[in-house]
């Protein structure tokens, strides 16, 4: 991309998917509140604007599916419009797709389960799971970080929190893979997406039935309690259980893969981590979250006319705020393109900000810290075992397709 | 006589999740940056204030006994 060429509005081109930092970074410098003509949405790229808008939730609605009458983008197969209605209804029932006062009421049902203190209690379980997965990889002599570590780890943890039987985990992963089509651009993505949604509902439904009569300390029981209190309908319990399952693992996969790759690309920082993994793991994880963030962007709908910089966003306009560019904003970070695992303070917005700040942030942090620590201790000679690495064609997630490595 | 508390919010850490304000609205309020600050450390019971601190998703709330200096959270 030459700097003189006009900014093109197709965010799904191979260039932008491979390197979102160049494209959104240029927008941040040249037109930080940019109207994207092609997808009819505002693209917000500065750190301070992102923080401001996420903390003014009354101006920017999170009920995107309920409040956006426009068709899906990128376009979908016309014969799939019925399926898209199903998707809108399903997504619209997620607690994250609500505004106050409902959002607060729904979040409070689950919030207590995910406090830093209660998540810290899961650290030994995470450590044991990491050890088990790395033992298996070590025996084999090589691994695909995606397939052998980053994918199974969060599934192990979330499935344990849900109280899902061990033998069902591959099926859960299969359904979650289909749900990931929500952030992609394929013309025919509605079919696998709705299969995933229906499959989740069918799978989770009997689990909820059991927890209603016989509650435990798992989080399906927490949601079932919300139903008993009249805060959730049964449909909302089912949709939110599958939301937690998906949200808890796709994003963590990206943290673990993107973070590992950042270390491989920066041998000096890898050397530093190896000197004292336990000491550096916390700040290193924060830097991985900042430098190559698991989530690229999040959508909102303007709830009223809002002035932002020299632009006016009209009520009903859709917008996307880009974590990937905000986390490299030179106004917020010194040497933003440098991967520095000792960076502090590190006010990255990988988990968003405001009332919708990621519910699972602490769990993701614990998983990241334990994985990077264990890799540094056990596999000091990490190398990528592939010529080129591909990313999923998504503007929501920064997801590698695979990450094969060796350590000899 | 209720125990006197010293309560503060680390502004470098606070992300404005506002759960503290929802749990103990007389104690915590949001400032112009939409970050939490302490309005009245005696605005609610010790239990409620500790509940608010524990529910902070980024552990930005600190609670001490104002007289003894004993750290109550985290």
Description:
The complex is a heterodimer of chains A (408) and B (74). Chain A has 408 residues and is α+β, with helices and mostly antiparallel strands. Chain A contains 18 helices and 10 strands. In chain A, strands 1-2-8-5-3 form a 5-stranded mixed β-sheet, with helices on both faces. Chain A has a 3-stranded antiparallel β-sheet with strand order 4-10-9. A two-stranded antiparallel ribbon of chain A has the order 6-7. In chain A, β1 and β2 form a beta hairpin. Chain A is globular. Chain B has 74 residues and is an alpha+beta fold. Chain B has one domain: Alpha-Beta Plaits (2-Layer Sandwich). Chain B has 2 helices and 5 strands. Chain B has helices at 19-23, 46-54, and strands at residues 5-9, 28-30, 36-38, 61-65, 71-73. The radius of gyration of chain B is 11 Å and the shape is globular. Classes of the chains: A alpha+beta (408), B alpha+beta (74). Chain A binds chain B through residues 54-56, 104, 107-108, 111-112, 114-117, 345, 347, 351, 353-355, 357-359, 361-362, and chain B through 12, 15-19, 22, 33-34, 54-59, 74.
Compact description:
The complex is a heterodimer of chains A (408) and B (74). By secondary structure, chain A is α+β, with helices and mostly antiparallel strands.
* Biggest interface between chains: A-B, 23 and 16 residues
- Number of domains as seen in the coordinates of chain A: 1
CATH class assignment of chain A? Mainly Alpha
Indicate the CATH topology of chain A: Cytochrome p450
Q: Please compute the radius of gyration of chain B using only Cα atoms.
A: 11 Å
Identify the CATH architecture of chain B. Answer: 2-Layer Sandwich
Low-pLDDT stretches of chain B are none
Look at the structure and give the mean pLDDT of chain A. Answer: 92
Number of strands of chain A: 10
Question: What's the SSE pattern of chain A?
Answer: HHEEHEHHHHHEHHHHHHHHEEEEHHEE
The CATH architecture category of chain A equals Orthogonal Bundle
Number of helices of chain B: 2
Helix content of chain A: 40-55%
What characterizes the major β-sheet of chain B?
A: 3 strands, antiparallel
Structural class of chain A: alpha+beta
What is the assembly state of the chains in this entry? heterodimer
Strand % of chain A is: 5-15%
> How does the helix and strand content of chain B classify structurally?
alpha+beta
């Amino acid at each position: 991309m030459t700097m003189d060429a006009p900014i093109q509005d197709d965010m799904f081109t191979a260039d932008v998917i491979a390197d979102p930092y160049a494209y959104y970074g240029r927008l941040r410098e040249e037109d930080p509140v940019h109207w994207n003509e092609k997808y009819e949405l505002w693209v917000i790229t500065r750190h301070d604007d992102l923080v401001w808008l996420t903390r003014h939730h009354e101006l920017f609605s999170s009920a995107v599916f309920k409040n956006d009458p426009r068709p899906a983008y990128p376009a979908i197969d016309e014969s799939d419009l019925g399926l898209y209605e199903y998707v809108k209804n399903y997504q619209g029932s997620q607690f994250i797709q609500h505004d106050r006062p409902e959002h607060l009421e729904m979040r409070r049902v689950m919030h207590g389960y995910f406090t830093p203190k209660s998540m810290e209690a899961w650290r030994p379980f995470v450590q044991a799971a990491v050890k088990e997965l790395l033992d298996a990889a070590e025996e084999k002599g090589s691994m695909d970080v995606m397939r052998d570590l980053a994918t199974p780890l969060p599934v192990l943890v979330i499935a344990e929190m849900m109280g899902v039987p061990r033998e069902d985990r591959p099926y859960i992963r299969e359904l979650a893979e289909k749900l990931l089509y929500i952030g992609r651009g394929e013309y025919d993505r509605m079919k696998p997406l709705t299969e995933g949604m229906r499959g989740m509902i069918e799978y989770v439904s009997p689990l909820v039935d059991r927890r209603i009569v016989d509650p435990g300390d798992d989080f399906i029981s927490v949601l079932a309690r919300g139903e008993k209190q009249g805060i959730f309908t049964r449909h909302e319990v089912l949709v939110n259980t599958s939301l937690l399952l998906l949200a808890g693992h796709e994003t963590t996969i990206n943290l673990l893969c993107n973070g590992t790759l950042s270390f491989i690309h920066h041998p000096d920082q890898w050397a530093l981590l190896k000197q004292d993994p336990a000491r550096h793991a916390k700040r290193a994880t924060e830097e991985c979250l900042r430098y190559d963030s698991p989530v690229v962007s999040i959508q909102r709908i303007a709830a009223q006319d809002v002035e932002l910089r020299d632009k006016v966003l009209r009520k009903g306009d859709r917008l996307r705020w880009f974590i990937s560019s905000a986390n490299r904003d030179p106004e917020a970070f010194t040497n933003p393109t440098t991967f520095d695992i000792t960076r502090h303070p590190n006010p990255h917005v990988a988990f968003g900000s405001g009332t919708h700040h990621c519910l699972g942030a602490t769990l993701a942090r614990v998983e990241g810290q334990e994985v990077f620590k264990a890799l540094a201790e056990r596999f000091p000679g990490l190398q990528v075992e592939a010529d080129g690495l591909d990313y999923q064609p998504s503007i929501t997630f920064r997801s590698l397709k695979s990450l094969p490595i060796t350590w000899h | 006589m209720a125990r006197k508390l010293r309560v503060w919010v680390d502004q470098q850490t606070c992300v404005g999740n506002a759960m503290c304000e929802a749990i103990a609205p007389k104690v915590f309020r949001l400032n112009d940056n939409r970050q939490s600050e302490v309005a009245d450390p005696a605005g609610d019971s010790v239990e409620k204030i500790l509940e608010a601190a524990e529910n902070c998703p980024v552990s930005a709330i600190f609670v001490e006994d104002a007289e003894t200096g004993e750290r109550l959270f985290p």
